[in-house]
Amino acid sequence: MTPTLVRNQLGADASASADAGTRARDWAEIQERMLAPLYEAVYDRMEIGAATRMLSLGCGSGLAMLVAAARGAHVTGVDSDRERLALARARLLPDAGWDDAPAHSPHPARRRARLVAEGDPAPVGADGAPYNLITVFEPIGCAAGDSEGLVPALRSAVPLAVRGATVVLTGWGPPERCATAAVLQVAARLADTARPPRTEPGRWRPTLRDDLEDVAARAGLKPDGSGRVSCPFGYADVGSAVRGLLSTGLFDAAVRATDRSQVEKEVAEALHPYRREDGTVWMPNVFRYLVCVT
To answer: Phi and psi (nearest 5°) for 143?
Structure first.
């Protein structure tokens, strides 16, 4: 049976989100770039290049794939959010047929990228060879249940890779090292206003020290090193910060418990300590990655 790559996307309830297309654009245009230092640090450590065949689980709108492809890697991305996936396709495959281009295509990048919706048959690499790197750049560790779909996705992905392939998992750093954690607590407080109170997937929770190691153990992966990367969240103004943060899905439970305007108002208030004199917003954060082998 052909394996499939499936993750349960948190916050899929349409009533909890803005227009899907707008939210995906907010992610792509505002929020996704905040993790660029994490991508670069991992790629430097992994020595990403022409010999790399990477499978990106939860590839979002494709920025991490674009960075890897620019280093010469062959990249395949999988995501459950079809709006984000469409934006990734526009970035990586702007000409129709890139992911199905023949080997003699005159543009080398056409032989290095492929995008697949989650739930579809699991893809082979863009050049037909098995993967030697699997990445998960969607950070876990600050929302209840955010790793539940990841474990089966990893188990499905491992057979598509060479024996001893590298797997990189990423997560939020300690709350005391992440200024954004204070803002995310607004999401938890507002979610608790639901009547009756309930705990549900997607609700904010403090990051635990062994979140990544726990995922690795459940997925049958062997840890082989780790690192921490500074990823400050910087925004042009409070409005951009609110839009970027809500595009993550981490506030969806709060929106369901109250309403979007209330969440936007309280998030804006929580951002005031991080607003600088020129109106920009700056929140230092640390993210963590765990290197594993299959």
So the answer is: -140, 135
